[in-house]
Amino acid sequence: MSSSGSSSPRFRRPASLFPSTAEAIPGDPDPSTSTDLAHDSAQALLDGVFHSSDPEVVERVLHLAAQDGLSDLAALWSGSPASTLPGALWRLYVLHTWVQHSGEDVVHRYRAGSRTIPGLRYLSGFAEPPDVQQVQRTMDDILRGAFTGDLAIALTRAGAVATILAHGTAHLADEDPGPHRTRQAERLLSTGEELAMAGRHAEAGRLD
């Protein structure tokens, strides 16, 4: 999910957590899509929900990716670094969407990973042992908290979830070797590290 270091701005298809995401994301965006638009749209969304007293607004944002698809968000946010607000929200939405789409697989990976790094279980907020419905509700709570509560805490919790899933995926790769799971583990670990970093930036007031 890391952004390209190329000097010329170019849309980069992110390392997706599930195949349907990669297929849904277009190749090259409209050249008018800019860094300013990514930041402005992310900030407007965050501010709009935070200052709204209408619970329906919160729920619409919570299910934004499910209703409109990740490709729309990708065109705006996916090229932004994790240390920025649009980049952090993009990674959070991708993780949330994967959990909602692949609950059983997520639970399987989480159970394998939580045995490896038990210290992060409490930060993630998942029940022990987790089930599909509980995991999906918790990810809803994390995404909701990013807009209505403490963004830094939400990003940190999401980072813990992705890191546990990365370790679980790596553990499953040891049992069933193959490049597919290994790549997934690397991508999840990268996502977890980036979300944790974004959480630190948010805590310090440096998530622009």
Essential attributes:
single chain; 208 residues; mainly alpha; 69% helix; globular
Question: What can you see in these coordinates?
Answer:
- The protein has 208 residues and is mainly alpha-helical.
- Helices cover 69% and strands 0% of the residues.
- The chain has helices spanning 19-24, 35-50, 55-62, 64-68, 70-77, 85-101, 103-114, 121-124, 132-148, 151-175, 179-203.
- α3 packs across α9 and α7 (103-114) crosses α9 (132-148).
- The longest helix is centred in the C-terminal third of the chain and has 25 residues, at 151-175.
- Mean pLDDT is 82; it is low at 1-33.
How are the SSEs ordered, and which strands pair?
Layout: H1 19-24, H2 35-50, H3 55-62, H4 64-68, H5 70-77, H6 85-101, H7 103-114, H8 121-124, H9 132-148, H10 151-175, H11 179-203
